[in-house]
Specification:
Shape: elongated
Strand order of the largest sheet: 1-2
CATH class: Mainly Alpha
Order of helices and strands: HHHEEH
Largest sheet: 2 strands, antiparallel
CATH architecture: Up-down Bundle
Structural class: mainly alpha
Helix content: 55-70%
Strand content: under 5%
Number of domains: 1
């Protein structure tokens, strides 16, 4: 059975962050869907992931996974909050997206029938796990 190397784990984390960043840019700029407030916060965590993990690979800095884990945890927290709003677990009176901008919970939050916050949560979780795995081999 092949073992996941730190290079492969970090490369996969970077590719996922880059793909996610390009996907939200496509949704916003090409499809014309204005992001809600929580989507902006999630972007604030995802865009640096693509840059930082990419530079870590370029410079062969295998400790960059630490920053990947930290940013992924922050982004996953926002995505989890967003998902709670989307499914109705969080009361409407404390929803941040109702004052200005698009709604955090309407039909615009679906892409291919999947809620955007769920896709973001999955991406952040996978990036966090891969970033953590890239650090594990160093410590052995």
């Amino acid at each position: 059975m092949t073992r996941l190397t730190k290079e492969t784990a970090l490369g996969l984390a970077w590719m996922l962050a880059l793909l996610s960043s390009l996907a939200v840019l496509f949704i916003g700029e090409v499809l014309g869907q204005t992001p809600c407030l929580l989507c902006w916060f999630q972007r604030a965590f995802m865009f640096p992931l693509a840059i930082i993990l990419g530079l870590g690979l370029w410079w062969q800095d295998w400790r960059v996974g630490r920053y990947g884990v930290a940013l992924a945890i922050g982004g996953a927290g926002v995505a989890l909050w967003h998902m709670g709003l989307y499914v109705g677990l969080i009361p409407e009176k404390i929803q941040p997206c109702t004052a200005t901008g698009p709604s955090c919970t309407d039909a615009n939050q679906l892409v291919f029938g999947i809620p955007i916050p769920l896709m973001a949560l999955g991406a952040f979780a996978l990036i966090g796990v891969l970033s953590a795995l890239s650090l594990k081999e160093i410590q052995e």
